[in-house]
Amino acid sequence: MFAWGIWSEGENPTRLGTTARRPPLQPEMEDIEDVLGPAGLAGGGAPPGLRLPLSTVAVKPKRRSSRVAQTPPQPEARIPGTQTIYVKTFGCSHNQSDSEYMSGQLSAFGYAITDEPEGADLWLINTCTVKNPSQSAMTTLISKCKNANKPLVVAGCVPQGSQGLKELEGISIIGVQQIDRVVEVVEETLKGHEVRLLSRKTLPSLDLPKVRKNKFIEILPINVGCLGACTYCKTKHARGHLGSYTIDSLAGRVKTVVSEGVREIWLSSEDTGAYGRDIGTNLPNLLNAIVAELPVDRSTMLRIGMTNPPFILEHLKEIAAVLRHPCVYSFLHVPVQSGSDAVLTAMNREYTVGEFRKVVDTLCELVPGMQIATDIICGFPGETDEDFAETVNLVKEYQLPQVHISQFYPRPGTPAARMKKVPSNDVKKRSRELTSVFESFSPYQGMEGKVERVWITEIATDGVHLVGHTKGYIQVLVIAPDSMLGTSADAKITSVGRWSVFGEVIEGSVVVGEAPKQTSNELQKEQKQNQLEESGCCGTESCGTCVCSDTVQHCGAEQCGNTPDAPQTSGDVDRQEAIQSTLVRRNVEGLTKAGESIAAAPSVGKEQQVNLVTRRGVSVDTILWCGLAVSFAATVALLVLLTGKVSSTSSY
Question: How many other CB atoms are found less than 10 A from the CB of residue 348?
């Protein structure tokens, strides 16, 4: 019989033969080093801290029971590194990057990564703590995993920021700065041990093995944590204080991923503008160093991550100069959260609405075609009708190309959770009103007929269109073969809907950089779509705001440009477009073959000029007439055949 318990960092080992300190769970250990240390590696006896079988019966502390504890079933012994791991990610792009690093290490060790939970030997859930919906989704998934009797490891911000959460009892957990030890945690969990690694240490290396969800997109974390202290933010509890990677390490990583064929680099951070303040440098220095590593043929583009107003104010001109660079998207995510200074003070956001205006006005003035996204929290504690009216007026005034609208969610342990709440009915009413305001905009009106350069990196969720982005990060949906992924081309905007912009690739305009190199880290099967938001997840880089609730909106405007956040289908899209999408879906295979012939075109220097026969949408009338003609011909042939048979029968 085992004396049951858990092992974790920072705990003293319990002597063999004594009663466990907590309800019986799994064999207790101190830390992974106890198993993999010198004794374990040398094979010299039992590892320190590992509980060995005893003849005594363990009982729960401070509770007497006449029933003998039953030995739980032991997992089937299998060779480490041969199992299949299901990885599920909730949250922002930083979380997605962490999952890609963990998947890369597991793949390099021999584990197979899958997106099918039923056939997996272990589930690895990377969690988000920004808002209640994402954490609720995590809780639901944990319950499913337990019901399926699967070993489970929970990573990310929830276990790091809420270590005592009841739902995490009896589960292996790994902190945000321990992702480089995921292989060890998975190995021990598969053996039946409960592992808890949460202590903070040095930043994980940027050169760990990585399996990208989209091989053309590299999510590059430039720092962890932030310098703020927002009263509603739970992420600070998990990610902690600011910790920046060095410029040399980040520039080196960019050089590496470009050589691997990456076509888009996303800088990820809880607050990009605060970068370097802990190591004596700043964001403009980093951006200039990264831009210097980008190919001059514009085959790889850079997207700058979310930045709060306080730390960008002093560098507006320098950042504007970077945003004008040909290899940098003219796009920036700057959360305002409220249009009221009183509410911003209660949030402890450390800036005013006037300072937010200065950021937006300056960048729109200095950067042609500048696109700015923002976030709004409706119903923050203490928000009055007058405060909310100021927010509505701000949204109406700027009509920014993208707005994430969210209701306030009190997060346990934050100062805002103790504040007097706005009635929930008022919160919902304000959210609906603000949503209605921005939906009244016509963000893409006037774009028809324009020609834009687009960088194509993804397949749309409809499985038919490819997703490209303009220099201003406006999403353009084009019909083209998959071989165009990772290329750039000129596209003529043909139609717009409320949420989507459609275009046609112009013949002879496709430019392909050096062919992507398949690295040893890309062991996972390639995904056809790159979505940072999983179902029920929270997907944003903004402190306290996510895009997992139905109040989140991707909105457009006229002042700073038009940036749809994701390829979506709207009821406002013309019926003709919807019919064409359905018809084109049937011809994807043939079009892919056409794309293969394009890929075989000879290269010129480091670039390929591809004469592409544009795949325009086939008109409905043409297809219908062709179908009728084929049907008529088949009918005539059948009648001729039957007539011949009848004639031959009559002759006899």
Answer: 14
| 502, 567 contact by CB (below 8 A) | no
Helices 316-323, 283-291: crossing angle, 10 deg rounding: 20
Asked if 25 and 196 touch (Cβ cutoff 8 Å), the reply is no
Report d(CA 222, CA 237) in Å as an integer.
19
Given pLDDT bands bounded at 50, 70 and 90, which one contains residue 61? very low
Residue 557 has pLDDT above 70, yes or no: no
CB within 8 A of 582, min separation 6: which ones? none
Give me the torsion for CA of 374, 380, 383, 389, rounded to 10°: 30
Residue 369 · residue 561 · CB < 8 Å: yes
Using CA atoms of 83, 127, 530, 569 in order, give the dihedral in degrees to the nearest 10. 130
Q: Are strands 451-459 and 466-469 parallel, antiparallel or unpaired?
A: antiparallel
> Nearest 5°: phi and psi at 243?
-140, 110
Identify the band that residue 493 occupies on the pLDDT scale cut at 50, 70 and 90. Answer: very high
Query: What span, in angstroms and rounded, lies between the C-alpha atoms of 526 and 217?
Result: 12
User: Cβ distance 576 to 158 under 8 Å?
Assistant: no
Q: Amino acid identity of 410?
A: P
Q: CB–CB of 11/49 below 8 Å?
A: no
Q: Nearest CA to 16 among 69, 59, 52?
A: 52
Give the CB-side neighbour count of residue 622, counting CA atoms within 13 A: 7
| Secondary structure element (H or E) that encloses residue 452, with its range | strand 451-459
Helix axes 353-366, 316-323, angle to 10 degrees: 40
CA dihedral 40, 46, 50, 55 (to 10 degrees): 160
DSSP class of residue 309 equals G
Apex 633 CA angle, 631 and 636, nearest 5: 110
38 within 8 A of 57, measured Cβ to Cβ: no
pLDDT score of 39: 35
* Tokens encoding 585: 């879906």
Query: For the chain, what is the mean pLDDT?
Result: 75
Q: What is the pTM of this model?
A: 0.69
CA quadruple 639, 644, 647, 649: dihedral sign? negative
> CA-CA distance, 432 to 425, in Å (whole number)?
11
Tokens of 71: 């030995």
CB environment 553-574: b (16+ within 10 A), e (fewer): bbbbbbebbbbbbbbbbeeebe
Task: Name the CA dihedral angle for 286, 290, 291, 292, rounded to a multiple of 10 degrees.
Answer: 110
